[in-house]
Amino acid sequence: MSSLNNTAKVKAVVHSVATLPRQILKWLQSLKLSKPVGRNPRREFSNGYVVAEILSKFYPQININQYDEGTSLEKKKVNWGRLKGVFARNNMVMIPEKLTEATIHCKPGAAEALIQLLHSFLTNKDSTTTLPEDCSFTDAEYQATLPHHARSTMSIAIKRNMRSSELISDPDKERQDAKTLIIMEGYNKMKKSVKKEDPGRYGRKLLDSTGNYRPFSSKLST
Q: Which residues have CB under 8 Å from 172's CB, separation 6+?
């Protein structure tokens, strides 16, 4: 659309948040999309159909009938393949391919980031949010909000942050290992932080004669 400033200053997007900001939700409502969105961004934007519908409001030449509402990995890839062409033709350089891949695989915070980038570009407004390094979206921010005992173990963290569709889409073992390493590093960083905040939590304890646990000491008592 000619009235859009394709060189608008966009400062990138979002931390790994679970919901969209109110101003973005209001904007989406104002577009009068075919179905309400915002309750579950990861699922709603994963196949690209709603993204195409948003863009069609600003670029009438986009034929929404060319996009499928299906949720299979194959249909998602076809939709996003078309969208990447739209991004390229309209100079939407602020949306990297890794962000679209993360959105396809429902990575925590990816869809929220992408929609906020689109909002900033389409409304010619600045955004102060930032993408994670290398678009490595994980649930680390959510985990940090939980009490220590409720946080994921390393194995669960890997399972939650490596989607099955991601493994099917990109079977390259080296890239999979690199993604797993990022998750493990994030987990270890969080664990070190917890140990610093509560050093006694991970200390070894013994059950004494009274039936209570007490700190374990490797030194022999004198």
A: none
Which pLDDT value is given to residue 140?
Answer: 63
| Pair of tokens at residue 190 | 């969080």
Nearest to 139 by CA among 1, 18, 5: 18
Residues contacting 80, CB < 8 A, separation 6+: 48, 100, 103, 104
Specify the range with the lowest mean pLDDT, choosing from 46-55, 69-78, 118-127, 178-187. Answer: 178-187
| Residue 112: burial class (beta carbons within 10 Å; 0-12, 13-18, 19+) | buried
Backbone angles phi, psi at 133, to 5 degrees: -55, 130
User: 76: Cβ–Cβ under 8 A, 6 or more apart, which residues?
Assistant: 46, 47, 48, 70, 104
Mean pLDDT (whole number) for 118-132 = 80
Supply the pTM of this predicted model: 0.66
Contact 123, 27 (CB under 8 A): yes
Strand, coil or helix: 215:
strand
